[in-house]
Design brief:
The chain is of the alpha/beta class. It folds into 2 domains: 41-295, TIM Barrel (Alpha-Beta Barrel), CATH 3.20.20.10; 299-442, Lyase, Ornithine Decarboxylase, Chain A, domain 1. It has helices at 2-25, 41-56, 77-85, 95-103, 120-129, 138-150, 191-200, 219-240, 267-277, 294-297, 329-333, 433-439, and strands at 35-40, 65-70, 89-92, 111-113, 132-135, 157-162, 184-185, 205-209, 247-249, 287-290, 301-313, 316-321, 342-345, 357-362, 371-378, 386-390, 410-417, 421-428. Strand 5, helix 6 (138-150) and strand 6 (157-162) form a beta-alpha-beta unit. The model has no long low-confidence stretch (mean pLDDT 96).
Length: 457
């Protein structure tokens, strides 16, 4: 298994190198296309297959299992469609994400709606479509009471709970803390008894959802969160005297290794850990839902930017590129928490080799902290070369941040063909300057100057 993972990592790196070179040769990168996002289609398909195989290996035959992609990780319709065709559903947390999933062809029966702030209209739409819904809190459950009572629905309905078991190394991605905004806080006074009673009083409440966190959360803590959810399901079913909870949604959250090419931890490691610690979850008595996002896409994405200028300051080399805060917001604002690997390519798109020197990889935004990497040892990047930020397939270039009104870059998927060839497909068109103006109120240029307040009359 370890040898397979090492081989897969080498193959992924080789595909990426070929894709960068082909992107330059085919004009997707160059003076007129200075930054682009690239997605590895083969890598995405293999990640989906690895996820399914890992849980199939530990789950009793015939168990209903839905692996739902957390659309927020990479909210691009072609990505959601590719995963759908690979057997992966969709977990959505807003009307926009639901619309993306529907545009990608994901059926309602393979869609899960999570959000801590669902409106009545959102709930009504989900129930009409038959989409699974995880209520976040008692007030939302009251809304569901009214909606379920007013019209029949095919939607599986559940409740999200917070086991309050602590945080990982990144507070912002830890969702099972004492004061987390998500779910019903199980250890608060009277909360657990209320949850049990809520289920016994509602025959239609049949799912239970818990999610401990994502990046920075160790497998041991993720496993503990799943164990807490399983124990609560057993308690509810015992109190109800029937199989009230029939499905447990364990969320996602598998962290991604950002330090090297390797895919660690793997889905297989996580599934085996859960099977060892919570064997009853996999014996066929409960359906299973997962909601992985970053772990499916991060390793499959690369943002590549042309070096516009190479300069130095204070004895430090600086490569000024077209990729910065607009495509790597987390890294720029929290570099210690979200470091990225950087790869250097020459002007033809080939990997650069030779002695390494410390250099900063700077972005185009007008503030001094707009850096993809600081003091990074790389072969010297020169004007016209390319810098690639690796592991950016999730929560990076698909989530544009319009600082300085920088345009959204184009995104292309790539796949090998023939003997060393590479083909591309457009996932998202590059944004034009005219579209930037339109998004920024260009059609309403005189709106404020023509507004007349009582004081100005």
């Amino acid at each position: 298994m370890e040898h397979d993972m090492e081989r897969e990592a080498r193959e992924r790196a080789a595909r990426r190198d070929r894709a960068v070179r082909a992107a330059v040769e085919q004009g997707l990168l160059g003076p007129d296309a200075a930054v682009v996002g690239l997605l590895d289609v083969v890598g995405i398909q293999r990640a989906a297959a690895d996820l399914r195989a890992a849980f199939d290996a530990v789950t009793a035959p015939g168990t209903p299992v839905l692996h739902a992609f957390a659309v927020k990780a990479t909210p691009l319709v072609p990505v959601v469609r590719l995963l759908h065709e690979a057997g992966i559903g969709a977990e959505v947390a807003s009307p926009g994400e639901l619309a993306l999933a529907r545009a990608a062809g994901v059926p309602p029966a393979r869609t899960v709606l999570d959000s801590p702030a669902k409106t009545r209209a959102e709930l009504r739409e989900a129930l009409a479509l038959g989409i699974a819904v995880n209520a976040d809190n008692p007030q939302e459950l009251d809304r569901l009471d009214a909606l379920v009572g007013s019209a029949p629905t095919r939607s599986p309905l559940g409740l999200r709970v917070n086991p309050q078991i602590g945080a990982g190394t990144i507070g912002a991605t830890s969702t099972a803390t004492r004061t987390s905004k998500f779910g019903v806080a199980l250890r608060d006074e009277g909360a657990r008894a209320w949850v049990v009673r809520a289920y016994t009083e509602r025959p239609w409440l049949t799912r239970l959802h818990a999610h401990t966190g994502s990046q920075g959360v160790p497998l041991s803590l993720l496993g503990r969160g799943v164990a807490e959810a399983y124990a609560l399901a057993e308690e509810i079913n015992a109190a109800a005297g029937r199989r009230q909870v029939d499905t447990i949604d364990i969320g996602g959250g598998l962290p991604v290794n950002l330090a090297s090419e390797g895919t660690t931890p793997s889905y297989a490691q996580y599934a085996r850990l859960l099977a060892g610690e919570v064997p009853g979850l996999f014996d066929g008595r409960y359906g299973l839902v997962t909601e992985f996002g970053r772990s499916l896409l991060a390793k499959q994405g690369t943002v590549v930017a042309r070096v516009e200028y190479a300069k130095s300051a204070g004895g430090r080399r600086i490569a000024v590129t077209h990729a910065g805060v607009q495509v790597a917001t987390r890294t720029v604002y929290a570099p210690g928490t979200w470091p990225l690997r950087i790869a250097a390519y020459d002007a033809t798109g080939r990997p650069k080799t030779g002695p390494e020197v410390e250099q900063d990889i700077a972005g185009p935004a007008c503030f001094s902290g707009d850096l993809l990497a600081e003091g990074r040892a790389l072969p010297p990047l020169e004007q016209g070369d390319y810098a690639a930020a690796l592991d950016t397939g999730a929560y990076y270039f698909a989530h544009h941040y319009a600082y300085n009104s920088l345009a959204r870059p184009g995104i292309h998927g790539y796949a090998p063909v023939g003997d060393g060839g590479m083909v591309f497909a457009t996932v998202r068109e590059a944004q034009t300057v005219a579209e930037v103006v339109a998004e920024s109120g260009g059609a309403h240029a005189s709106a404020l100057t023509t507004l007349r307040t009582p004081a100005s009359r």
